[in-house]
Structures are given as structure tokens and as C-alpha cells.
Amino acid sequence: MTSSGNPYLTVRDLTVSFQGKGGEFHAVDRIGFELDRGEILALVGESGSGKSMTSLAVMRLLPQAARMSGRITIAGDDVASLPRRQMEDVRGARIGMVFQEPMTSLNPVLTIARQMTEGLIRHQGLSRKAALAAARSALDDVGFGEPDRVLSQYPHQLSGGMRQRVMIAAALALRPGILIADEPTTALDVTVQAQVLDLLVDLKSRLGSGILLITHDIGVVAETADRVAVMRHGRIVETGATDAVLRNPTHDYTKALLASHLTVEKALGLRPAEKGAPSRS
Amino acid sequence: MTPDALTLDNIRKTFSSGGRVVHALSGVSLSVGKGETLGVIGESGSGKSTLGRIAVGLEVQSSGKLFIDGERVDDMSAVMRRRRLRQCQMIFQDPYSSLNPRLTVGHQIGEGLYAAGVSDWREIRSTVADLLERVGLPRDFADRYPHEFSGGQRQRIAIARALAPGPEIVVADEPVSALDVSIQAQILDLLAEIRRENRLSYLFISHDMAVVARLCDRVAVMHRGRVVESGPIAAVIENPQHPYTRNLLDAVPRFGRRRTGRKPVPVDLPLHGDGDRFVSVGEGHTVLQASEDAAAG
Amino acid sequence: MTDTSAPLASRRRLPVSILIGTGLAVVIVAAAVLAPSLIPFDPMRMAAGPRLAAPSFDHLFGTDEFGRDLFSRVLTGGRLSLGIGLTAVVSGLAIGGLIGLVAAFAGRLVEATLLRIIDVLYSFPDTLIALALVAFLGPGIENATLAIAISLVPFYARVTYGLAAAERAKPYVEAAKLAGIHTGRLVRVHVMPNIGQSLVVMGTLGFSSAILSAAGLSFLGLGVQPPSPEWGAILASGRNYINKAPWILIFPGVAICLTVLSFNLIGDSLRDLVDPRRKDRS
After folding, report:
1. Which chain B residue shows the shortest CA-CA distance from A223?
2. DSSP A105-135
3. CA–CA separation, C101 vs B267, rounded Å?
4. Is C243 exposed, middle or buried (0-12, 13-18, 19+ CB in 10 A)?
């Protein structure tokens, strides 16, 4: 889709600010990154770091009170200059989005089939039948063995993990170049989280999707992301290949984030010496 | 031999919802020794929160016995039980809804002292200030309201409130899962420190293996209303025996491993019945064995 | 992550409906309170003007079949209607609220029993309950007020129970319970301050229904007795003259409508404002 050499999504000098009581508040402060198809870039940071605002800016879904400056291009088009109608096509067709809480993003009174085909019919002008076929194949892509059964169900009949997979399928059905996943596994159980992360990696390698993964969990980053950008107070403080950044962090905040990240191994090593327990390195 | 601080014996709990009977707990037995931290780990629907609520008396089990300091409390009169259960306090998951927005934090911490029979408000005030200091907050925060505090500070306040009645047992239900990672470790360290100083016993409920590993001496793994494996934390993590424990550990994100995107081979988890027995696989390390396995082996 | 934007994006403005409602209510209440000094004639005085006279400069709302001045009667009637409504709502809310709190905090058996009774009573329209009670107690202003108050009890008991039961499940209430706070103090310190606002809103909504019931009972001759100028009673006496003198029906009718409308507007908008789903977190 993209001309070679130009990344699918580029963000330059992005600033998102709000007028607050004590003057202007920068939720996102002059950040830049790019994301191409077939790779996973993780934006990692704690609450208030500006990572979610960044994703909303890319989708042009910022709250009204927000002021945005900088340049975001998707497949060569400047997002800010697109008319609203065309932006609606960009959302969905070029960028899909998956949110943290799958239950609130699905309409409880509509079947999965209705919710998945709606976008296809509107954005891509497909017939109902073609839209159903596309939805079916998207559900197949995310690993549902019996897509037709899922299509006929309502959100409450599905488990949390299934709903999140449906959300991903709904985004994928539109064949977007990239997928923005905002804390897609935070509300899920660990074993279900593992399935969803496997799915994201699978989509990247099999379908060549580019994925912007927004997360607070550096363990998730370590397992799935190709590149990582560490955010704090609206800025990217460190970025690079995941392995390099996690192995040799240069910024103090990255080091602190890694140090405070609890892992099972570290936790066992850190524990005060126990009576009778074998010593660990 | 000193009795365990808290013992739950064959606890069952059923709820009826819309005419269907849901088994939240199907015969759980656990003990927490004095000064010990027992972790209870499980995913949503495992029954771990219900277990914690039964241990402090917020819910009543459908059957089974509850002992505090070796003394059976579930057959006491309501008044006695209430007094006895005051030794069990709880720390909740959500630091926002666990504090009353309309009362000062000093008031909320002090209430426990007042209820325990301290009637001199000067004495209460000074004890509240001590408690605030104990959890790492300035003494004069007592007159402030919850909305003035961050999530981590609120959780410290909630800890101070739980300590006020002078408990011996503290049930902590996911006390750090709503907090940022950088705050989690601080709160866990605070809990460990307080346990040492006050000789407390913890029942620590969590879905996060790393958090449990950081704080707990022993761990009980729960799945569908049953404990499927329990033992010393290191033994369970390094030598998991039950298929569910292995699944759970394998799912925890870790450094140095990359997800391949291949679907893992699904593991068949045994369906346990009431007749299943625990098998010892190491010192204090037991695993629930499905009865057909037992018959086959 | 929406934290920074939310207060700016949805800075609350008072809805228009609450302004209209409050404006109307202020006018209605002021008219009723100040009635003695506003009215040109004694509301009971017969032949203050010609019989069944149409509205004119002398008699703004016209006169009734006895030549009494309707403007004076409607304004004075407001004192009765609002008074009955207020008394009934306050006592209904007090009794119903108490029952609701007892149901929520006095243990499972009491809870189940009270809820069953409340549900049965709640399934009857409150006007029907009031009607049955007045038929039993006998007509008259005190009995009508009492009947209306009682008819509101199931509604308030249910609402209070619902709010208190939701509050009961909040972690801070559970924590206070664990600390050993006895139930009375728990309700007073933790529950009431947090549900009081919603109860006031419900009181406002019940007020209009009480006014309607009062008018209805008087219209049927079971409430305020003639010649006292209650709105429903005026309506009843005017129904024989609907063709010759429709103003006897129109003015008290409009008074009832506006009163009900204004308190419903206030109640509805207040309910939206204090809706717990709109609570903001930082």
C-alpha cells in the first residue's frame, strides 16, 4: 500500500495540550515516531504519561477541549488536513482501534454479525452478504473455529477474551494497514492475555499488520514488541529496538521502570532469605 | 504447638442466580500460620475473592468451618463472632471506592479505634497520627479528605484504617492491582514491613504471580472454586505440578521470551470432583489429583 | 486517560429545564405564601361579584356559581394543595425511608419480608391506595393528607432500600463494618450523607404526585370539603358549569398542571445531576 521508504504512519512534533486552571497543560509534548506494516511498536508508560492521548490524536478522536499541533501522516495523507468525512474512512479502513474494555465497546443489544458488518457496509460499500463473508473470515483470522456461531451471538454470551478477539476481528475486517491496541489485555486474565498477545503477533507476521501497542506492562512489551518508546509526562524519553532498550536502558526513567517491574524470578531472588529455602542467584 | 492464626476447613459457598445454583467454592481448606503470608492466586471466577470475604465475615459460607487462633467462630453467637472477627481486617482492591469521600481520613481511621472502645478523642487523634506515620504519610494528613490523595496514598490510608482495630489477620484482596507499577513495589514493601513489626498474618489474594512471589511465604492456586495446588512459593513456581498452575505460570509475560504467534497446544484441565484427594509432591507442597488419574496410576 | 479533558469538555451547565422548573415553582410557592396579601376578596365570601361571571378586570379568573372570586380561591387553594403535598411527602419520605433503611440493614429475614410486602403494595397505584384509605378513614383534609402520605410510603421505602443496598456494598461501608462500627452509626455516618441528595430528589418527584392525589381525592369529595378552596374541590364544584363557565375548571386545572410540571422538571433534572453514573474521578 505504501510507497517504499515512507512508513505507513509517521508522527512528527505531536503536542496535545489542554487549557487548565494553572495555565496550559501538555498531555503530549513534542513527540515523534513512525510505524510501518509488519511491525509492533509499543508505547509504554504509567497512567498520565500521555500514551493514550497519543493514540487518540492519531485517530483524531481527541476531546474537544484539546489543542493539537504537529504533523501526523497516514499512508501519505496529512491527518489534520483531511475533511471529516474522509477521516471517517481513514479510521477503520487504514487504522483500526481496539480498546481496553471490550464490553463497553460492543453494543449489548446487537448481534456480533450486526456490529461487525455495519462498518463494512458503511466504509467499504459492501453488500450485506459480502460484509458477512468478510466478517466470517476476520473471525477465522482471530482464531474462532466456528465463526457463524459467534456471529449469531450477543456480546454477553461471550467471555472477556472472546469479546476482545471479536473487537480485534471487527477492526481487522476492514483490512486496516495498522491497528492501534490501547491496553488490549489489561482487563483480561493472564491466561487469556497470553492468547490475545499471541494473536497480535500472529496478525503481524501472517497478515503484515502494523500494530501500535499501548501498555503499562513492560513484560508484555518484552514478549511482543519489535520496537518500544518509553513515555513519561507526555514525552518519549527513550526509544529503540525492544531488546536493546530493555537490556541496556540509557534513560533513568526506563531504568526505574524496569527496576520496579515485578517478575516472578526477580521476586523470588529479592525475597529476604528464608529459613530452609535453597539460595538463589 | 501454637494454633494457626486462621483456618478455613472445607468451605463451600453456593449462590443462586436466576434459579441456577452457582458453586463459588467447592470445599476449600486453608491455614495461615502466625506471622505467615499465604497467597491465594487465581483468575476471575476462581472464587478467591469470595474466600477472602468469608475469612473476614463479610459473607457467610454455605458450609464448612472457620477458626481464628484455633477457636471455631462460625458457630458463635452473632455478637461474639463479630467481636472475634474484629481481629480480621481487610484491604480492598480499589483505593477510590474503599474510602468514604465525605469523611476526613482521620475520621475513617479513628472509627476503628472508637468502635474498639477508645472514647477519648484526643487519644484517638494521636493514635491516628501514629498510624499515618506508620504507613509513611505525614501526621497532619488526618484532617484531609480522600480526594486530595493519589491512588498509592489512598491505599496507604486504607492500610492504616485496617491496622486501627489492632488486627492479627489481614486479608488483602488485590491491594496493588489498581496501582501503577512504580507504586506497587512500595505498597508491597510497606505490607511486608508492617507484618514483621506487628506479627501479622496475611491472606493475600491476587491474580498476579509476580506480586504473590514478592510477598508470600506460601501460595494456594485456585481454579473453579477449588485449591488445585499449594505449597511454599518457590516450590510451586519452580516445580509446578498441576496443569492449571503450569498454564498460569506459562502465561505470565517474561523477559527473554518472544511470542511466536503460534497457537499453543490446548491443555486439557482435569475436572475435579469432591472425591479428589491431595497428593504430596514435596515438603508442604500438595497437588489435587483427579480421581481417574489416581485410579490409573 | 480522559482525566485531564473531562472537566473541561463537560463543564456542567444548569440545564434549561431546571431553570424553567425552578422559575415556575418560585412563582407558584410565592403566590401561595403571599396569597393573604395578594387576594382582592375573601375566598369564602359569596356574591363578591355576579354569579358565573367571565374573567374581567375586577375578577381576573372570573367568579363561580356562588359569585365567589376565583382568583382569590385559586391562590388560597394553592396554600392548601402545597401544604397537603409537603406534609404528605415529608411524612411519607420519613416513614418510607426508615422502612427502606431497616430492610437494607436489619438482616436477611427482615429484608426478605419487608421487600415482599413493599413489592406487593408498590404494585398498586398510589392514588388507589390513598383512595382506599380515605374510604376507610372517612373524608377530610387530615385524613386525606395521611392517606396520601401512606400511599407514598411503598415508593419511598423501595427507593431508599435501593440506594441503601447499593451503598451497603461499597467497600468503605464494608470496611467500617469490619472495624466494628455498629449499624446505627454506620447508617448515620456512612450511608445517609451519601444517599441524602438522591432522597431529596425523589422527594421532589413525589411532591407532584402528592399534589395530584390531593386534587383527585378532593375532586371525588373525599379530601378537602367545600367550601374550602382546594384546587380539586374547585374543579369538582365547577364540573356542572363546564359549558356556561369553563373558567371555573380552567384556572385550577392550569394551576395543578403547572405545579406538577414544575416539580417534575426540577426533580428530573436534579436526578440527572446527582446520577451516580456521572460521578467524576480524578
Report:
1. B258
2. HS-TTS-HHHHHHHHHHHHH---HHHHHHHH
3. 50
4. exposed
Which chains are adjacent to chain A, needing at least 3 Cβ pairs under 8 Å?
Answer: B, C
Distance CA C70, CA C252 (A): 9
Cell numbers that stand for A245 in this block: 532498550
- B250 domain residue, yes or no: yes
pLDDT tens for B132-152 read 999 999 999 999 999 999 999
CATH number, domain at B287? 3.40.50.300
Q: Cell 475513617 appears where?
A: B108
pLDDT in tens, B276-289: 999 999 999 999 99
Q: Output the average pLDDT for chain A.
A: 86
How many distinct structural domains can be found in chain B? 1
Which residues in chain A (28-67) have CB-CB distances under 8 A to chain C? 47-48, 51-53, 56, 62-66
**pLDDT by residue (tens digit) across A250-260?**
999 999 999 88
Chains contacting C (3 or more CB pairs within 8 Å): A, B
Domains and CATH numbers, chain C: 15-281 (1.10.3720.10)
Complex ipTM = 0.87
Give the Cα separation of A77 and A92 in Å (integer): 15
B161 within 8 A of B123, measured Cβ to Cβ: no
- pLDDT single digits (tens) A117-162: 988 888 778 899 999 999 998 898 888 888 899 999 998 888 888 8
pLDDT, residue B12, reads 96
Q: State the Cα–Cα distance between residues A42 and B180, nearest whole angstrom.
A: 17
Domain range for residue B30?
Answer: 6-87+167-296
Give the number of other CB atoms < 10 A from CB of residue A52: 23
Contacts of A200 in chain B (CB under 8 A): 261
Local structure of A236: helix, strand or coil: strand
Sorted by sequence, the CB contacts under 8 Å of residue B147 that are 6+ apart come out as B101, C282
**Axis-axis angle for helices B151-163, C171-178 (nearest 10):** 20
Instruction: For residue B274, give the 3-state DSSP assignment.
Output: coil
Q: Is residue B228 part of a domain?
A: yes
Q: What is the residue type of C227? A: P
Confidence at residue B51, expressed as pLDDT on a 0 to 100 scale: 96
CB of A235 closer than 8 Å to CB of B266: no
In this predicted model, which residue has the larger pLDDT, C22 or C12?
C22
